[in-house]
């Protein structure tokens, strides 16, 4: 149960679905409620599929390119720190590759659930590298199942938050969403730094 909660908390912090609410509302502006709910559903499904694939196949990709898990942890820690700093400084969407040009292009396409909402907004390099490291650290089947369950719980949470985007936006307001994003950003930054420190300690055997 501890592993489930730790995985859920880490993924939720890195993905930060609350920070995606303003972008979701902007990309679905003018869409009927049914269409918004459909987009929220498929965005969460895509997030789940991408993260599960990263969790189970990531190690194979690392072996193919000859990348060690500790180097991945450092790289992932840097990416996670970048996301956390983006949340703290208010440049989260730009750091996730969602600039005005991408948003304008998304407005012209029918399906935005995969990109930019799922990739790179939520299921980005930070969450992927986090799960690849977790797969390496938890070889037991029961632990893998708990992590997959945590991924599913995060995906359900993503759906509920995006589905309630209008209500959340009205309830918290722009300043409220920014404040929560800054708090989450601080936690994400701490997670990234911890990953880097742990990896350096292992590499240099301190």
Give an overview in words:
The chain is mainly α and 206 residues long. It has one domain. Helix content is 83%, strand content 0%. It has helices at 2-15, 21-27, 33-65, 69-89, 92-95, 100-107, 113-122, 125-137, 141-163, 165-203. Helix 1 (2-15) packs across helix 9 (141-163) and helix 4 packs antiparallel against helix 8 (125-137). Residues 105-110 have low confidence and may be disordered. The chain crosses the membrane at residues 6-28, 40-65, 71-92, 112-133, 145-162, 183-204. InterPro entries: Multi_antbiot-R_MarC. Belongs to the UPF0056 (MarC) family.
Summary?
The protein has helices at residues 2-15, 21-27, 33-65, 69-89, 92-95, 100-107, 113-122, 125-137, 141-163, 165-203.
Q: What key phrases describe this protein's structure?
A:
206 residues, mainly alpha, 0% strand
